[in-house]
Specification:
With 206 residues, the protein is an alpha+beta fold. The chain is built from nine helices and five strands. The longest helix is centred in the middle third of the chain and has 18 residues. It is globular, with a radius of gyration of 17 Å.
Length: 206
């Protein structure tokens, strides 16, 4: 927690092991606008560190996503992760209480949580699967090869209805609708309020 004392809004600490070029775990410390509290996020597993980058770049940085997509990930991993953390810092600083912009960090989580409740998969694997149906066809064609590079699943083999029941049984979601992060073009996003029924239809189509 001493990070709040120093002028270092984001600190990424790669833990040197064998996955993802030695960066098997990445700890990011994001300093909030007020300096306190400091949110510490542990991303365990090299694939999850890569997922954080893929998720943020898909919504916020088309140029760097292109590097992620077309170049060797290991050769560029420092630049990819550092820039991703800087984007995350900017998002958190601008929207500390998740009133708008910060919701982009939930990209893939809506149905991802449902998948997590029905399958024995890691959280990051479920989020990766959850990103796929909320993208346009064009984005999906680019995103899936990146997830494959990270050895993350791209095909859900469980019951879609069971996963969706996690969302449809949420009384607040049923009453107020769901804020869904849609990515129709790499490097951009939109937050769309959807009914549970419309969200279910979207997932089943894709």
């Amino acid at each position: 927690m001493c990070a709040a004392i120093f002028p270092m809004p984001v600190i990424g600490i790669p833990m040197h092991t064998t996955s993802l070029g030695g960066r098997d775990s990445l700890y990011s410390i994001v300093q909030m606008p007020s300096g306190i509290p400091v949110a510490t996020v542990a991303i365990n597993g090299g694939a999850n560190a890569g997922l954080l980058a893929a998720k943020i770049l898909a919504t916020s940085d088309a140029e760097l996503f292109d590097l992620f997509e077309t170049k060797d990930i290991l050769e560029n991993i420092d630049e990819i992760i550092i820039k991703s953390l800087k984007i995350k810092r900017m998002v958190v600083q601008q929207d500390e209480k998740e009133k708008g912009l910060r919701k982009i960090l939930n990209f893939g989580h809506t149905i991802g949580h449902g998948i997590e409740s029905t399958m024995k998969l890691y959280h990051g694997e479920c989020v990766a699967l959850g990103m796929i149906p909320v993208c346009s066809d064009a984005v999906r064609k680019r995103l899936i090869p990146v997830l494959n590079k990270l050895e993350l699943p791209t095909e859900y083999k469980g019951s879609v209805d069971a996963a969706l029941s996690f969302v449809t049984h949420d009384k607040k979601a049923a009453a107020d609708g769901i804020d869904v992060i849609l990515v129709e073009k790499i490097g951009s996003f939109k937050i769309q309020k959807m009914t549970v029924e419309d969200f279910s239809s979207l997932v089943k189509r894709n």
